[in-house]
């Protein structure tokens, strides 16, 4: 029960105070510290006596932190323990103690139980379940130590357990090189790069960190569609900078993380560095049919032109619409924009744009200046295997990692790696139950297309060519192609 004994020695005042805390919890005593410093400490039982704020007016400060007795009554428990630091052997020793208690059991312990203590005692359970409710943390404390804590204490304890228990930011950045070596050692074939910058005073510090795991790299080459979504998101404190990600799509139309990097700022220089590493890792410099999708960040657009000039570069239609509706809002403009964005052939796109022009010439000019071939399906390459017009798979990945973006850099990178590893394991197990060579999502898509096929009529025109018609629409189809 860690009951203090006269003559017992401790390393320091902190260890002595921890001993008194567990003693009070085990026996239900509400202790408070009459004196508390590194050299000596006096602990008493009961409620702290009120302090006189203005003796002349007899105004006393209220004390609700130590309600061991009924409000207005003074505690008279004689229990008292005194300890001090001994100079001879550099230890903290219990000098005197009155072991008599005349008080009743208490379930509130004032400053003995603070948020840091809760975070230390239950930090492992909080970190295993970051979404744990405050009431559940209070129940854990009540069941184990038979004391009640407030919601504010639980809230601060949860924050402390998820963030402040980590090492300092300086220590994390100091371990980045060791972390990179361990990643390569545990995942042979992976690419981990560190970028450094030198200050005018000669001090060198890390400002870039790139990760591409070998398994993800090989999986993208062998089974994924040749499309990569590029996006950046801000990192919350204590980190500074942004997280850049490259997300692909697998054969079942699900997101497939490829690589990620931490940079100081999202600009052309850092995007160029990131794209050069992706180009080398995925060996896409000579690959025909690569598609990139991103927002309208100017630095990214310029970097793609320099590094991957032959790749098809799409811009997220949702980002374009969010900017478009700031000037041209309303249901009509919304419907016309998405109709133009998802038009399947140029004539349909032109017809929709004519309707926008008739409604508002300014809206028409605004969209034309955004280069329609980058955001309308009518102008996408036909052999890319992906008709997406918005960067939803990057946004999906950013949503998954939102709970770890506030963590120190190594903890954040490890959390992302574990999330990706668990996802790959789940997808691998699901794929073992697939029947046939076609993945389930693609099979469902084919069934929808087959159902719509009944509305079209094919007319043979000679050789391998057909004319396919539906109402006023007609297309030429060449089976040989």
Summarize the structure.
The protein is α+β, with helices and mostly antiparallel strands. It has helices at 13-27, 115-128, 134-145, 151-164, 169-174, 176-186, 214-223, 268-282, 298-307, 317-327, 331-341, 346-359, 361-368, 392-400, 409-431, 440-452, and strands spanning 9-10, 31-36, 40-45, 52-54, 59-60, 80-86, 91-98, 191-198, 204-212, 227-234, 242-249, 255-263, 291-294, 312-315, 457-462, 465-470, 473-478.
List the helices and strands and how they pair.
Layout: E1 9-10, H1 13-27, E2 31-36, E3 40-45, E4 52-54, E5 59-60, E6 80-86, E7 91-98, H2 115-128, H3 134-145, H4 151-164, H5 169-174, H6 176-186, E8 191-198, E9 204-212, H7 214-223, E10 227-234, E11 242-249, E12 255-263, H8 268-282, E13 291-294, H9 298-307, E14 312-315, H10 317-327, H11 331-341, H12 346-359, H13 361-368, H14 392-400, H15 409-431, H16 440-452, E15 457-462, E16 465-470, E17 473-478
Parallel strand pairs: 10-13, 13-14
Antiparallel strand pairs: 1-7, 2-3, 3-6, 4-5, 6-7, 8-9, 9-12, 10-11, 11-12, 15-16, 16-17
Helix pairs in contact: 2-4, 3-4, 8-9, 11-12, 12-13
């Amino acid at each position: 029960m860690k009951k203090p004994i006269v003559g017992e020695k401790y390393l320091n005042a902190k260890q002595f105070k921890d001993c008194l805390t567990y003693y009070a919890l085990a026996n239900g005593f509400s202790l408070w510290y009459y004196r508390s410093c590194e050299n000596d400490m006096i602990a008493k039982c009961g409620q702290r006596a009120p302090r006189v704020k203005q003796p002349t007016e007899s105004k006393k400060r209220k004390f609700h932190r130590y309600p061991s007795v009924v409000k207005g009554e003074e505690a008279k428990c004689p229990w008292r323990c005194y300890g001090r630091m001994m100079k001879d052997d550099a230890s903290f020793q219990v000098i005197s103690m009155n072991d008599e208690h005349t008080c009743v059991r208490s379930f509130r312990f004032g400053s003995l139980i603070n948020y840091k203590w809760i975070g230390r005692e239950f930090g492992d359970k909080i970190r295993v379940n970051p979404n744990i409710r405050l009431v559940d943390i209070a129940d854990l404390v009540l069941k184990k130590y038979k004391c009640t804590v407030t919601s504010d204490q639980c809230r601060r304890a949860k924050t402390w357990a998820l963030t402040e228990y980590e090492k300092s930011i300086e220590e994390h950045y100091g371990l980045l090189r060791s972390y990179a070596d361990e990643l390569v050692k545990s995942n042979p074939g992976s690419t981990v790069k560190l970028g450094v910058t030198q200050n005018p005073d000669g001090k060198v510090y890390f400002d870039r960190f790139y990760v591409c795991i070998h398994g993800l790299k090989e999986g993208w080459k062998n089974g994924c569609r040749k499309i990569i979504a590029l996006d950046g998101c801000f990192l919350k404190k204590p980190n500074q900078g942004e997280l850049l990600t490259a997300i692909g799509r697998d054969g079942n139309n699900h997101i497939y993380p490829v690589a990620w990097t931490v940079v100081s700022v999202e600009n052309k220089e850092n995007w160029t560095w990131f794209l050069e590493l992706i180009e080398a890792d995925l060996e896409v410099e000579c690959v025909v049919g690569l598609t990139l999708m991103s927002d309208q960040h100017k630095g990214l657009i310029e970097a793609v032109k320099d590094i991957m000039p032959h790749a098809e570069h799409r811009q997220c239609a949702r980002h374009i619409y969010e900017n478009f509706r700031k000037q041209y809002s309303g249901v009509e403009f919304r419907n016309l924009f998405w109709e133009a964005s998802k038009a399947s052939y140029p004539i349909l796109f032109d017809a929709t744009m004519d309707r926008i022009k008739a409604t508002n010439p300014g809206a028409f000019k605004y969209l034309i200046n955004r280069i329609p071939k980058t955001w309308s399906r009518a102008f996408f390459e036909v052999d890319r295997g992906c008709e997406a017009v918005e960067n939803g798979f990057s946004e999906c990945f950013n949503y998954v990692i939102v709970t770890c973006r506030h963590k120190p850099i190594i903890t954040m990178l490890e959390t992302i790696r574990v999330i990706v590893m668990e996802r790959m394991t789940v997808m691998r197990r699901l794929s073992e139950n697939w029947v046939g060579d076609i993945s389930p999502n693609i099979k469902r898509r084919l069934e929808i297309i087959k159902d719509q096929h009944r509305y079209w009529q094919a007319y043979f025109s000679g050789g391998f060519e057909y004319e396919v018609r539906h109402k006023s629409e007609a297309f030429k189809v060449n089976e040989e192609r």
